[in-house]
Every structure is written in C-alpha cells, then in structure tokens.
Amino acid sequence: MTNHPPLSRSDFAATIEQRLRDEPTIEVLSREGEVVQVRIGQRHLRVDLTAFYHAYRQAPEHFELVYATLLRTLHDQIPVREARTFSEVAHRVMPMLKPIVLLNAVFEKKLPMLAYRPFLADLIITYVIDEPQSVAYINERHIERWQVGEHQLHEYALANLAARTKERAKFLISGEGAQRLIIAHSQDGYDATRLLLPDLLVSWKPHFPGNMVIGIPNRDFLIAFSDADESILTSIAHQIQLDSVQREYGLTDQLFTIEDGQVREYQWV
Length: 269
Description:
Number of strands: 13
Order of helices and strands: HEEEHHEHEEEHHEEHEEHEE
Helix content: 25-40%
Number of helices: 8
Strand content: 25-35%
Structural class: alpha+beta
Distance between the termini: 64 Å
Number of domains: 3
Largest sheet: 6 strands, antiparallel
Strand order of the largest sheet: 8-9-11-10-12-13
C-alpha cells in the first residue's frame, strides 16, 4: 500500500470486502457502500467502515494495522460460547483472581467446572474472555472444544494482562518514605489481578523503605505500601480487612509481598 496513492473511499471499502472474503472464519454476506455485513460462526455482524477509512487516510502506509484493528473489532463481538477455535478469542483471554469458594458455587449449580489454578491465600486464578460489557468464564468444555492446554491458556492470559496494563492501567502514587502509597485504580475489573505481574511489582520496590506490602481486598483495588512504620502498616491492614468483607467483589484480607521476583504471603514479624 505504501507505493501507491491513497485509496479512495469506495476502493478502500472494496479492498476491505475482498480481504474479509479471504478470511477462513468470516463469511461476507453483503456490502452496501461502507457498510459490510458478515457472519462469524453463528453471529451476524454489521460493521461501518467509515471510522476505519478515516484512520487509514491519516496514515495510508498503515493499512495493515487498520485492517488488523478491524478484525479484532469483529472478533471482540463474538461471545465465548460461539467461538469454535481458541485463536478466535486468544487475544481476549484474561486471568482473574477469585476466592476458592467460587468452585463450590459452580459445583452446587451443576455447571461445567471452571478452568483454574490454585494461587495463595484461598484464592484461585480463573480465566475469562473479556467481552464488551462483561466477562465469560472459561470452563472445562471450552478447554476440550478448543484443544488448548492449561499452561498455554495461562501464558496467553498473563501476556494479555501485561499488555493491557502497559496500555491503559492507571496508578495513583502519593506520600513519601514510609507513607508512600501506590494504588491501582483502572476500574477495568483486573486491578487486584495485577498482583500476578511480578515485573510490575518489582519495579515498585525501590519506592518503599522496609518491605513492600500489597493488599487486594476486592477485585477493583490493589494497594502497595511500606511496613517501615508499624502504625501505618496496622492501620492499612485493618482497612483492607474491612474492605474485603464490606466491598463488592471481595477477595482477601491476606497481605502479600514480593521476594526474589515472586509474590509471597506477607508474614507479620
């Protein structure tokens, strides 16, 4: 695309239509102007190419990037229950920390068992497909249908979490010395789960005297602080304990730290 004049609006739409027809998992139903109707699995989707054309016109040499974004937009609209292959949803797999009692609820409701691995402090790592308005838990039936191993699922989930954190996570840093606080407050459903990113946590350690302590009282909150001042440590630990039972999506009052690049349960001295 870089050796030719920019495509006109109609030529851009025609080129996109042809590229979509070449995709093995996409069936093009029709195109009228800049609106393309496609079917992916059992899902009938309508996509307006106007915004994608504007993005292309700003940088015609990045046509492939615009097209890749279009594909991702289409696949992001596929509910997990309709995905026939793991590749259709791999870029949307995310880890999510949950209390282990969730497994009891799944069992009692006679639902397919979740894909998970044990973590620390009565927590488990579950795996979800990030959807526009919610998440869908991956269960043993998905694993069987997609023929994907648990290790591969875990690696994809962590890589996606790290990428999202780098792209859009928000962290509040306040105070100095023993009063220093770092709080994850992206409110994207994965703030507490960022405890699974040891490289991120290691980068925070130099900001704290003594040991860095981490709390994840609920799904949407992660706080890192110092244990150098016992009164501050006790006060924050008490608030974490309250929040873990009073806030929505409660997780644990257990404190954590990082040692030798690994997350560990914090041990009070």
